[in-house]
Amino acid sequence: AQSVTQLGSHVSVSEGALVLLRCNYSSSVPPYLFWYVQYPNQGLQLLLKYTSAATLVKGINGFEAEFKKSETSFHLTKPSAHMSDAAEYFCAVSDPIYGGSQGNLIFGKGTKLSVKP
Amino acid sequence: EAGVTQSPTHLIKTRGQQVTLRCSPISGHTSVYWYQQALGLGLQFLLWYDEGEERNRGNFPPRFSGRQFPNYSSELNVNALELEDSALYLCASRGLGGGNIQYFGAGTRLSVL
User: Fold this and answer.
1) pLDDT tens digits for B92-103?
2) Residue A44: pLDDT over 70
């Protein structure tokens, strides 16, 4: 079955430091991949998506992610963390049964990012 | 443009009761998805409705059910509530464009006592 693994349930960085959140997926076909962010007591907001175009994807708020097929990874990065980046981040993949362009999303367990002043 | 709206925001029920959660998708979106976010279990897919039909359901018992109305809004019903049903229930909608981009509402927080 399709799965998504996020390494590290908690990540802490200093303000201004690099943010790196890891995501690995299992898929036998090219996947559609997503990163979402969830602030406390809110729903999910889409940060960026990979849908088999450019392997380096730029999203909102200065985040970007690189699709690496050989490593089955889609890690999220941001060069310089801001206090406002503190939130929980979820990596997700479209269920490949439906070809990726529709169907439910399969989520990783999430990574809570803390940003220290 | 209004986003995905869910009601109510919070709900408190007791074991054995029934509950109905509501979701209005973004205008023009025809697909609605329901997800459960329970403490320690992460985000799990519940149900997918498209054009009024149930297209897929996740690994949940039959007491979780729902429907989609002609205006594409949706209801999630949970019968015979159990303590472990306490969770944030998120609704998402998707338009006809490619890429399976799902837009989420703020969720309904259900507490079962």
Assistant:
1) 999 877 678 899
2) yes
Q: Which of A75, A91, A83, A108 is nearest to A37 (CA)?
A: A91
Identify the CA nearest to A13 among candidates A82, A114, A86: A114
Residues with Cβ within 8 Å of residue B67, at least 6 apart in sequence: B49, B54, B74, B75
A61 φψ region: left (φ > 0), alpha (ψ -120 to 50), beta (else): left
Min Cα–Cα distance to chain A from B15, Å: 24
Beta partners for residue A44, in sequence order: A38
Task: For tokens 């023009």, name the residue.
Answer: B28
Q: Reduce the DSSP state of residue B85 to 3 states and report it.
A: helix
Q: Do the strands B10-13 and B19-24 form a parallel or antiparallel pair, or are they unpaired? A: unpaired
Which of A68, A71, A22, A65 shows the shortest CA–CA distance to A46?
A: A65
Residue in A36, A104, A106 closest to B48 by CB: A104
